[in-house]
Design goal:
heterodimer, A: about 130 residues, alpha+beta, Glutaredoxin, four-stranded mixed sheet, 4 helices, globular, B: about 190 residues, six-stranded mixed sheet, 6 helices, 6 strands
């Protein structure tokens, strides 16, 4: 395989962009934030990040934003993932693995249903202001 | 870090420290020769005092800025422990207001050396990390006095892709990096 140049990357991007526009879906308002502190990484956050990317891509949800953050103070339930989807409460999931990540995409993001067993609500009380009250 | 941590996991963790140190420029070098892999993470962030540097390797030390009540900081201690256990070299040099360099080497043949891990996926996630810092990655392999290398920066990727945190663009970055890594792989098998 020849090394791809930035020029070729730009062309590939244009092709992808046209495909996305043709499908006329925009999931830009949906955001997935993955906890990638030491605790998250040690618990497998990178596998989870890859699972989200692959599942979102397979489901043609390619304009969802996937970002990372540091420790959310929930080290005991890592890997943690925050999901903000329009019309849904902002939720932090804990103990996420590859399979749970795919469920979150299919159930929460695509069907507007929480994956209740894995919901861990909000950041730990000693991390957020006013003790989370 | 647990049994399954890869060298890429350690790198992700250390690079994140640089992003959180308010750096404008972060540099990562991954260079391998026959027997060793050499890593360095360089930033021009806020840096550490000599005292902080000593204590940075203590797992029960934290500057208390990120999480006020927490008394642990495990990133550098984990890395230090791993490097020590495989007989590698480790150095931390830093200056307040100037930045920090973390340099470490790992022997490829040591039984306890973690697997390298997935470089394209690691780098594409680092490029998509929410930080205004530029990230410049230099990757090289040396064998029989011949060298194969590539260099890629967040600023040039941003110029091409406009944004680096959507699913499709992260996957495009991964594809791009996979082709660069394939050239390194091919070189290592050929030479």
């Amino acid at each position: 395989m020849a090394k791809m140049t930035l020029q070729e990357l730009r062309k590939l991007r244009d092709t992808k962009k046209t495909e996305i526009q043709k499908r006329d879906i925009n999931d830009k308002d949906t955001q997935v934030v993955i906890g990638m502190g030491t605790c998250g990484i040690a618990a497998g956050a990178k596998t989870v990040l890859d699972a989200f990317l692959n599942e979102l891509d397979e489901q043609h949800l390619s304009t969802v934003s996937v970002t990372q953050t540091g420790c959310m103070g929930l080290c005991y339930v890592e890997p943690t993932v925050e999901v903000n989807a329009p019309g849904m409460p902002s939720v932090i999931y804990g103990k996420v693995d590859d399979a749970v990540a795919r469920r979150i995409v299919q159930e929460h993001i695509m069907n507007g249903k929480l994956v209740s067993e894995y919901v861990f609500d909000k950041p730990s009380a000693d991390i957020i202001k006013d003790g989370g009250k | 870090m647990g049994m399954h941590a890869s060298l890429c996991d350690f790198l992700t963790d250390i690079a994140q420290n640089s992003f959180e140190a308010d750096a404008t420029n972060v540099g990562i070098v991954i260079e391998q020769n026959e027997n060793w892999i050499i890593f360095s993470v360089t930033d021009d962030g806020k840096g550490m005092s000599p005292d902080q540097q000593k204590r940075a390797l203590d797992p029960f030390y934290s500057d208390g800025i990120k999480h006020k009540k927490r008394k642990v900081g495990l990133g550098l201690p984990f890395l230090y422990q791993m490097v020590e256990s495989v007989g590698g070299e480790f150095s931390l040099s830093s200056e307040v207001g100037k930045g920090t360099v973390v340099y470490y080497t790992v022997p490829l043949s040591h039984i306890d050396t973690p697997p390298l891990g997935d470089i394209p996926s690691t780098l594409s996630s680092l490029f998509s990390y929410p930080s205004s810092a530029d990230l410049i990655v230099k990757r090289a392999a040396n064998r029989n006095e011949i060298r194969e290398e590539y260099e890629v920066s967040k600023s040039e990727l941003l110029e091409v892709l406009q944004e680096v945190n959507t699913v499709s663009n992260i996957i495009l970055m991964k594809t791009f990096l996979q082709s660069q890594e394939a050239a390194i792989e091919e070189f290592l098998q050929r030479v």
